Amino acid sequence: MPYHPFKKILVAVDGSFHASIAARYSFSLAETFNSKLFVATVITEGMGELEEKVATNSVVKILDEARDAGIDIEGVLLKGDVVSAIDRFVRDNRIDLVIVSTRRPHRDRRLFASSVTSALMSKLPCSVAGLKITHPGRSIRPGKVLIPVIGDGYKDQERADITEALSHKFDSRITVFHVIELTALRIKRLDTSEKGSLIKSAEKRLVSFISELRRREISMAEKIVTGRNAREEIISEASHHKYDLIIVGATTRNILRRVVSGNPVEGILRDTPCDVMLVHFK
C-alpha cells in the first residue's frame, strides 16, 4: 500500500442525518488506511438538554457501528465554540484529517462561505473534508464518482488516497474530468486539428494525477470537454450522467476568496444533484 498521510482521522457529528452519513464515509477511509478514528461532538453554550442528548447519542451510535465493522474508534465530547474546540483537539492529538458535513445554507443560499466547514479549512493545521449530503436517507453507495481536475498537480497523491479508499470500499467507477475553458466564439471556430491539440495538451496536465491512480491499481475513465465555464460543465456532467459523488479539491485561494459571489465551489455544492466531497489538504 502506498504511503498516505491519514493516520488519525476525526469526524464531527451533531445528531443530524447529514453528519451521520459523513461519519460513514469516514469508515471507508479508516478501513482502507488502518487509521485511528475519532468521532466527536461539540456541546456549545446555550445548547438545550434535548440537543445535548441528540448530539451525544449520535456519537454512541457511530461508535457502535464502527466497532461492529472492526474499526479502531474513540468517542470524544468537546465543549465550547465549535471551531475553537475542534482546533484544540486537532492540535493536541495531531489529527491528520477532519471530516465534517456542510448542510445549512445561509440567507443568500451560500453553503460554503461563512460556514463552519470553511472556517475549519482556514484555521486547522490538518486536512479537512467537507461533505454535502444530497440524499441523507439513502445508503452510501457511490457507484459513480466524478473527480474534476485542473491539472495543476495540486496534492495529487492525497487526492488519489481519498479516491483509493472509496474505489476499494465500494468498487466505484471513477471518472477524471477536465474542462478546457474557451469563449463561445472560440469553441464555435475550433476545427478538428485545433481541438485535438488542446486535448493532447490537457492530457499532459492530467498525467500526474492519473499516474497516482494507476499506481494504486485504480481503473478510471478520462473525460476532457470544452466549455465556457468549468463549474457549469461539472454540474452538467454530474446531472446528465447520474453520478453519486463529486470530489472537489479546494485550494488555499478558493478559501481566501470564499466570500466572492462567483466562487465555483458554491455553485457545485448548491446545484449538483449528488453528494459532494470538498477537500482541502494541508
Comma- or semicolon-separated keywords:
23% strand; 10 helices; Rossmann fold; single chain; 282 residues; ten-stranded mixed beta sheet; alpha/beta
Please provide a written account of the structure.
The chain is of the alpha/beta class and 282 residues long. 45% of the residues lie in helices and 23% in strands. The longest helix has 24 residues, at 192-215.
How does the SSE layout of this entry go?
Layout: E1 8-12, H1 17-33, E2 36-43, H2 49-68, E3 73-79, H3 82-93, E4 97-101, H4 116-123, E5 127-132, E6 144-148, H5 156-170, E7 173-181, H6 184-189, H7 192-215, E8 220-227, H8 230-240, E9 245-249, H9 252-256, H10 264-271, E10 275-280
Helix pairs in contact: 1-5, 3-4, 5-7, 8-10
Helix content bin? 40-55%
| Helix-strand pattern | EHEHEHEHEEHEHHEHEHHE
Distance between the termini: 22 Å
CATH architecture: 3-Layer(aba) Sandwich
How many domains? The number is 1
Radius of gyration: 19 Å
Work out the helix count. 10
Briefly, what is this?
By secondary structure, the chain is α/β, with parallel strands linked by helices. It has helices at 17-33, 49-68, 82-93, 116-123, 156-170, 184-189, 192-215, 230-240, 252-256, 264-271; strands at 8-12, 36-43, 73-79, 97-101, 127-132, 144-148, 173-181, 220-227, 245-249, 275-280. The chain has ten helices and ten strands.
